[in-house]
Amino acid sequence: QVERYTIRGVLDGNRKKLRLKTTVDFTAAMDSVSVVTFVLNGNLNVRRVDYADGEAGLAIHQGTILSVPLMQPLRKGERTSLTFQYDGDIRHGSTPFFKPQKNEQWLPMHSGQETFSFDLEIRNPDRLTAVTTGVKLSEREEDGNIITTWYSPRRVNLVGLTFTDHRVIAKQAGGVDLTIHANKDLLPSASRENEIIDLVDEALPFYTAMFGEYPYPKLEIIQIPDSYEFGQGLPSMLMLWGLYFRKDFILDRDLPASRYFNMQQFFRGFLAHELAHQWWGNVVIPRTYRDTWLSEGMATYAADLFVEQTDGREAFQEMLKNHMEQALNADKEGAISLGARLKGFYQPIVYEKSAMVLHMLRQVCGDEQFFTIVKRFYHDAYNRAVGTDDFRKVVEEVTRENMAWFFDQWIYDVGY
What whole-number percentage of the chain has pLDDT above 70? Predict the structure, then answer.
């Protein structure tokens, strides 16, 4: 069980290579642990590993698997640490954009289901701004570099890091310190940045009332390149498709029209989904790939609920109609519980069908019980890895009914 990361990083002046020194503190979860295994980007070069006493160790890095034999086996409950020194190019392909989406792209990770604390110091050229999922403690200039330090105020399961040379817009929205990093080549008059601020100001209080308090002290939104047709919701840090910011975005030209029925729905639904991951995925963590729908399905339906509340029943029904059309086309390919094994059918089943299943559960239970279920499950699952069985348990506690029939049909089987 990883308890803490202490990370020291330097981005070279060419904006290409990141050099890292990362100490991982961990506790043995069983007796006789003699080898510790991590997942780390295979393109990173591990130069050295040291044991807790400073003695050099052996690091075996094959593909993405990083293994370290221990000098002495650990007993269950014993704690120790390893310090890795490694470097590499963490940009996306040959582009200048730094886009670590997952921990293992730049940190030695033992499990995607663990939560941990971290502190981080980053040195980068002063032409760039470092953005992370942590809270900034300090910032200073030194020899043409910016040195920033960060920490995690609570345990997290994701640590994001990127570097930008964007314009910075700092505001208060929804009671949270919001910072938007917008492409400096996109003039403010051509950018939707003010609309994004207003939308966050609307959505954060809605989700807080629906699920619980926003779990972080800040929120940063980063405009990523136009060629990245997605968003990413890391703890306190959203990366959003570049075209999303553009006022001249044309739905039929820039996005398959089957996903949204108008520009208003796309603008509100896209951000609402990524923002919902601050609760679903970052605080409530799916235990396995079979439980991913508890993140993606919940975030999708949360965005639907936001649209229902703010834009009305007709817009909400259009969202459901789009989910249903996509789900019906892919349904025969497998059950929701197959998760990532659905491959090309992952989105229509794990996102779209899951949202429809949650809507059906709402119809079965009624609004009062359904919203009690969602809020109680979020509270019970706070900051831990949970599975479909945990969600079903809360459903049955609230409804006082055996709901096996519902989960067997809609999560573990195909059909409509």
Answer: 94
In the 8-state DSSP scheme, what is residue 350?
Answer: I
d(CA 221, CA 200): 10
Whole-structure pTM value: 0.91
State residue 267's pLDDT score. Answer: 84
Among 413, 411, 372, smallest CA distance to 389 is for: 411
**Could you give the CA distance from residue 411 to residue 333 in angstroms, rounded to a whole number?**
13
The H or E element spanning position 131 is strand 129-132
pLDDT digits (tens, 9 = 90+) for 180-208: 999 999 999 999 999 999 999 999 999 99
- What is the per-residue DSSP string for 284-299? EEESSGGGTHHHHHHH
Contacts of 221 (CB under 8 A, 6+ apart): 178, 179, 180, 181, 196, 200, 237, 238, 240
User: Residues with Cβ < 8 Å from 124, sequence gap 6 or more?
Assistant: 10, 11, 130, 145, 146, 163
More reliable by pLDDT, 26 or 257 = 26
Half-sphere exposure of 392 (CA within 13 A, CB side): 15
- The conformation of residue 224, written as its DSSP 8-state character, comes to P
Residue 336 to residue 350: CA distance in whole angstroms: 6
Sheet holding 167-173, edge to edge: 167-173, 176-182, 218-223, 237-240, 231-234
pLDDT at residue 163 greater than cutoff 70: yes
Which stretch, 96-100, 131-135, 356-360, has highest mean pLDDT?
A: 356-360
CA–CA separation, 167 vs 99, rounded Å?
Answer: 18
Report the distance separating Cα 42 and Cα 382, nearest Å: 32
Give the closest residue to 124 by CA, choosing from 30, 296, 8: 8
Burial class (CB in 10 A: 0-12, 13-18, 19+), 394: buried
3-class state of residue 245 by DSSP: helix
Task: Specify the residue for token string 């520009």.
Answer: 263
C-alpha closest to that of 271 among 233, 219, 323, 312: 233
The single-letter DSSP state of residue 212 is -
Tally of residues, the chain: 416
